[in-house]
C-alpha cells in the first residue's frame, strides 16, 4: 500500500489533503495545522494519531471507521466527530468523503471561550445527522484550502464557521453537560467525554447486552459509579440505554425489512422469539404483524 504525504508541507494553519483510490495517508502527529481532507475511490485509507479531533462526512457511499473502541460504519447523510484516540477511516466501496482533522491545539485557535467562561467550548465526539449547510461548509473549506479559484474565502474563517456550526449541532448536550459533576466547565467537559465514550461503545455493539465492567473500564469508573453518573446525566442507566437502542433497531427491522421475526430475534440478542414479541408489543403497543401491515398500507397509499 502506498503512502502519500498531505499537500502543503509548509506552516499554513490549514493544509489540503487529497486521498485517492487504494492510497493511504498518515499525517505527522507533530504538525500544528488542521488538514482539510477530500478522499475518493475504493480502498482509500486515512490513519489519524491520538490527540486529534476529526469531523468527517461521506458525500457518497459508506465509510468504515475503526478505533480502540471497535469497528463501525458511517453511512451517507451522517457525520462522525471523533477525538483523543487514534482513528482509521476506510472507504471500502466507491464513494467520496470530506473532513477536517488536526490536533486539539490547532482546533483551539478557532474555539474561543464565551464571555465569562475561563475554558473554551468543547466539540464532543459522536455520530450525528449531517445537515446540508454543514456539509456544504466542509466542501467549501476543502476547496478553499486547495486554492480553488472560485472560492475566495479565507480557510481560517471557514474553519471558525465550521466550529460554530458543530457547536450549534451539539446544543442538545448543553443540559447533560450542566448535570455532569465538576466545579469547573473543564471538569464537566471531561466527565461528559467519558460518558459519551461509554454510549459510543453501546451504540456500535448492537447485540443489546453491554458488558458493564468493560464499559466502566473505558470510562475509568467503577460499574456502580458509572451507573450512577450515567443516570444523573442522561436519566437512564447504560443498560437501559442499550435496551432503548435495541428496541429502536427492532422497530426499524420489522417495519423496513421482510426478515423473518426469528432472524430479527437472533440478530438483536433476545432469548427467544416470544420474549422479543412481548417486548415489542409492550414498547410499541402493537404486534410485529400489525406493524408490518401498517407499513404495507402506508406504502399502498403512497403508490
UniProtKB/TrEMBL annotation:
Alphabetical list of SUPFAM superfamilies matching this protein: Homeodomain-like
Top-level taxon of origin: Bacteria
HTH araC/xylS-type domain mapped to chain residues: 196-294
This protein's UniProt keywords: DNA-binding, Transcription, Transcription regulation
KW RNA-binding (keyword) present: no
Pfam family, one: HTH_18
InterPro entries from the UniProt entry: Homeodomain-like_sf (IPR009057), HTH_AraC (IPR018060)
UniProt keyword Transcription regulation present: yes
PANTHER family in the cross-refs: ARAC-FAMILY TRANSCRIPTIONAL REGULATOR, HTH-TYPE TRANSCRIPTIONAL ACTIVATOR RHAS
Protein name: HTH araC/xylS-type domain-containing protein
Species whose genome carries this gene: Luteimonas lutimaris
Organism lineage string: Bacteria, Pseudomonadati, Pseudomonadota, Gammaproteobacteria, Lysobacterales
Amino acid at each position: 500500500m502506498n503512502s502519500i504525504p498531505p499537500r502543503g508541507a509548509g506552516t499554513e494553519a490549514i493544509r489540503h489533503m487529497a486521498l485517492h483510490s487504494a492510497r493511504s495517508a498518515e499525517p505527522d502527529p507533530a504538525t500544528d495545522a488542521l488538514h482539510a481532507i477530500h478522499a475518493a475511490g475504493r480502498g482509500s485509507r486515512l490513519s489519524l494519531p491520538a490527540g486529534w479531533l476529526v469531523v468527517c462526512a461521506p458525500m457518497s457511499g459508506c465509510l468504515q471507521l475503526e478505533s480502540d473502541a471497535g469497528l463501525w460504519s458511517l453511512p451517507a447523510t451522517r457525520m462522525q466527530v471523533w477525538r483523543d484516540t487514534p482513528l482509521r477511516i476506510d472507504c471500502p466501496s466507491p464513494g467520496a468523503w470530506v473532513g477536517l482533522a488536526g490536533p486539539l491545539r490547532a482546533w483551539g485557535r478557532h474555539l474561543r471561550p464565551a464571555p465569562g467562561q475561563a475554558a473554551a467550548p468543547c466539540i464532543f465526539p459522536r455520530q450525528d445527522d449531517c445537515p446540508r449547510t454543514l456539509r456544504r461548509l466542509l466542501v467549501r473549506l476543502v476547496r478553499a484550502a486547495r486554492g480553488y479559484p472560485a472560492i475566495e474565502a479565507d480557510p481560517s474563517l471557514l474553519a471558525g464557521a465550521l466550529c460554530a456550526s458543530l457547536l450549534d449541532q451539539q446544543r442538545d448536550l448543553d443540559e447533560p453537560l450542566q448535570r455532569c459533576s465538576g466545579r469547573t466547565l473543564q471538569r464537566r467537559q471531561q466527565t461528559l467525554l467519558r460518558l459519551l465514550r461509554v454510549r459510543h461503545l453501546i451504540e456500535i455493539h448492537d447485540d443489546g447486552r453491554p458488558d458493564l465492567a468493560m464499559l466502566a473500564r473505558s470510562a475509568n469508573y467503577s460499574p456502580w459509579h458509572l451507573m450512577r453518573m450515567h443516570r444523573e446525566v442522561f436519566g437512564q442507566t447504560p443498560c437501559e440505554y442499550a435496551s432503548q437502542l435495541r428496541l429502536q433497531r427492532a422497530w426499524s427491522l420489522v417495519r423496513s425489512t421482510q426478515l423473518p421475526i426469528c432472524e430479527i430475534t437472533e440478530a438483536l440478542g433476545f432469548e427467544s422469539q416470544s420474549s422479543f414479541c412481548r417486548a415489542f408489543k409492550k414498547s410499541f403497543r402493537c404486534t410485529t404483524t400489525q406493524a408490518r401491515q401498517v407499513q404495507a398500507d402506508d406504502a399502498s397509499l403512497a403508490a
